[in-house]
Amino acid sequence: MKYSWNVAREVMRLVPPSGGTFREAIVDFNYKGFSVPKGWKMHWSPNSTLKNAEYFSEPEKFDPTRFEGKGPAPYTFVPFGGGQHLCPGRDLVKLQILVFMYHAVRKYKWETVLPDEEVDFILFPKPVDGLPILLQPHIV
């Protein structure tokens, strides 16, 4: 199950389940030449971290082995948030993902109907044509 969870984590790194979050500046600060006054609302996108080559080598490459050993540095893999904003349901979600993967892979052969389908990223990833798939039961 360890490798299966690494596969799920890599999928969540490449296509985060959340489009981001909003935070309020608690002090005035400058960032890359921009002044941000205290009280302004800011949007943080997980892609700014999850696809950053500083934290993940070859960030566009699908590589579940990047989660082996020590894995990513703290607060760089954040599909469930972090710190005081860590999702309280993350362990339940992990269990649900692993159970789904087990049954989906063991019982069915999957084939995408539109292998080059585009994905819109407006808050959440959404396949343009709905991601039609062809499922065929494995015959044991």
UniProtKB/TrEMBL annotation:
Asked whether the keyword Membrane is assigned, the reply is: yes
Question: Which residues hold heme?
Answer: C87
The family database entries (InterPro entries) matched by this protein are listed as: Cyt_P450 (IPR001128), Cyt_P450_CS (IPR017972), Cyt_P450_E_grp-I (IPR002401), Cyt_P450_sf (IPR036396)
Task: Give a single Pfam family match.
Answer: p450
Instruction: State where it is primarily located.
Output: membrane
One GO term in the molecular function aspect is: oxidoreductase activity, acting on paired donors, with incorporation or reduction of molecular oxygen
A Gene Ontology cellular component where this protein is annotated is: membrane
Subcellular location per UniProt equals:
Membrane
Q: Does the keyword Protein biosynthesis apply?
A: no
Arranged from A to Z, the UniProt key words for this protein are:
Heme, Iron, Membrane, Metal-binding, Monooxygenase, Oxidoreductase
Sorted alphabetically, the Gene Ontology BP terms of this entry are: isoquinoline alkaloid biosynthetic process; sterol metabolic process
Q: Which SUPFAM superfamilies match?
A: Cytochrome P450 (SSF48264)
What cofactor is this protein dependent on?
Answer: heme
Tell me the protein family, please. Belongs to the cytochrome P450 family.
Supply the PANTHER family for this chain: CYTOCHROME P450 26 (PTHR24286), CYTOCHROME P450 716A1-RELATED (PTHR24286:SF349)
Q: What is this protein called?
A: Cytochrome P450
Species of provenance: Papaver nudicaule
